[in-house]
Each structure stands twice: as C-alpha cells, then as structure tokens.
C-alpha cells in the first residue's frame, strides 16, 4: 500500500502479476469457482427468519448486502481486472475475513419433511443429503433447490460416498447391496451385490470402492463397470480408509490393519492400543495412520509400521478412551470427546498445544467438527450452536449459527464446510420441528 501510493508507475509495479502469483503459491492459494451471486434469487427468497428457529449470527440484510457488493465493485473493480493473481489473493484474504469477523451476507434456510438428516456432502455446485426416511437428495447450490432425488434404495442410507468431482454417488443399505448413481443426472447405474450382511463402512478413491461388511469380508469394486475386483477375508466392521492401493481398517479388536488390495496381502498390523479403536485417519501422502482409543492417540509411519507419536490426555475423562473426529492438517491434529476438543502437534513424539473445554470451549456435547485449511476450526453441538475457533491460538472466534432455544441436548447438528461455504443439517431430538438445512456462503462479496 505504501509503495503503490508513490505514483502511478509504482502502482503498476505493485500490481505485477508474477509478484502476486508468487504470493499465492507461497500461501497455497488455488483457483476458485466464479464469484458467487447466491445472496440473490433462491437464496434471497429463503433467507433466515424468526420462524426458522435458528439464528445466523451477524447477518446482513438483503438491501445492505446488495449495496455492499456494488460499492466494492465500484471501488476495486479495475484493480481486479488488471491483475488476476492479485484478485485471487485479495479474494482469498476476504473469504478468511468473512469467516472470522465480517457480517454474513449470504445464507438460506430450507425446511423439509425428511425425518432426520444423517449425512451431508458438498461437491462443486451440489450438496447431497441423506435421511432415515430413505431420501437421498441432490441440491443445486446456486438456487438452494433440489436438483433431483436418488431413487431405488430399499432401506435408509447407512452411508454414502461421492467421487471427487461429483460424477458418481455410491450408497450402502441394510440389505448388503451398494447402489451407484450418476451424480449429474441421478440415473441409477449399478447395483453391486455380493455381501451377505449389511455394509458397515466404505471408502471411495477415484472410481474404485472398498466396502466392509458384517459378513467379515472386504470387497473392492470398480464402480464404472459395476464389477467386484477383489475379496479380502477380513473383518472390517466399523471404519475403512483407502488410497487406491492400500486399505487401512479396524474391526472390533485393538489393532489397525493395512492391506494391499491388489496383491491381497497384509502389509502391517499396527499394535499398541489396549481397547478397541474408536476412530481412524489415513494420510497416504505422508504414509501416516492415526488411531484413537484407550485414552491415547497413536500416529504410525505406515511405510515402516512404527509408532512415531503417542498422545495422552484423555484418561482424565469419564469413559476414558473414547476419541472422535480425528482430522489432520500439516502437523496439527484435532480430536474431540463429549464437549472437549484437543489440538495436537504430532512432531517429535507429539504434544498437546491446546485443550478447549469448560468456559473456553463448547458447553454442550459436540456432534460435528471440521478443520479448515485456513487455520480455522468449526464445531457444532447439541445446543444448536455452531462455533468458529482459531486453531493456532486455541481461542474462540465467534458464533456462526445459534439456536433460539436454550434447552441443552435439544438438537442434533451435522455440517460440512469448504473454504467458502458451510452447510448444516439441524434436527430437534423430539422431532417437534422440521429438519432444517442451513447454507452459508462466505464468498458472497465482489470480486
């Protein structure tokens, strides 16, 4: 800013595209979709109101949002046109600022008659929701309206996976079958049969799917051809992670197993936990496996099969050993149990850098947590509150969504977040209120 104020020549130098390109690469900023106008159209028609029962905090009214966007376009439009990389850099910083402190410009609340939203996924331009009343819906993000329903399921969706670009959607049911739909049209492509009991876990990598069942087998599928490629005689009942070659899973025991699906051989059995494993994370880029149980979290180098970090602090809690929501960004790992959140550094054997609890944390049982690349963390809890945290500082930033009811344990809340948006599914435990879908866009400002 100081240099750009010297003269027009210096201003042009300060907007050199290669300089801003280097700054973007250093920060890891990548291209986004076209700027959003979601605060208009269908989003404007379904903006939150008192009847919705949920408050979106620091919300800007529609007229103010339109004026704000027009003012920014007038003030900064030429700058963005001159330097595409500077535009990207400023836009990214603006999005982070929108998350942290600025009034929310764009949101919509939709009520539907699903009995219970149980899972959410976000893909470019689409949101996928599943519920216990057999409903699988694909929504258009731009107008916040259903695009189509996925039909053919003969039971409530137990879990589902969406391919990276939303081309395929795979759902498992109680009958041991898997169904594959086209993510663009909703047409059913395949019904994958082979498991003899219900499927408890699955993981999709590219167009290859791994499914685990109570029939004590893991099956590997090609979802394009609808064919079973491999059958592994192992019990993976609760969680499975897959990178296209190696599958990592645990069953009812205390070990974590690593198999090569192509050679159908066990590569490693990772030991150390004394209780059944509760949660599992696999980062294939660095060959890291993380598992939580018995009051500890263990980090293994899966290439060598050795434990490189042992994290302890859960034994102070009742029912010690439960550990959920493992997420890893760089060397920062987060986990939660009940209303407590731990933030860890996994380097040099591992250490706890922040413990968010009591007056400094959530005051109700956490039902959903997500760590963002921008150093922020989002948590949702049974009191209908969605909170934003600074992971590096271990501090509360602000509320994003809040229930108008003060009753603890009244709501079950699930959400998914991207760097630019947040989607929440909120249902009341007594089912006296309609299930709500809350969409918030943090990119609704020019450019």
TrEMBL record:
PANTHER family according to UniProt: TRANSCRIPTION INITIATION FACTOR TFIID (PTHR19879), TRANSCRIPTION INITIATION FACTOR TFIID SUBUNIT 5 (PTHR19879:SF9)
WD repeats: 192-231, 270-310, 359-399
SUPFAM superfamilies hit by this protein: F-box domain (SSF81383), WD40 repeat-like (SSF50978)
Matches recorded under Pfam families: WD40
Keyword Amino-acid biosynthesis listed: no
Alphabetically ordered keywords of this record: Repeat, WD repeat
Name of protein: F-box/WD repeat-containing protein 7
Species this chain originates from: Mesorhabditis belari
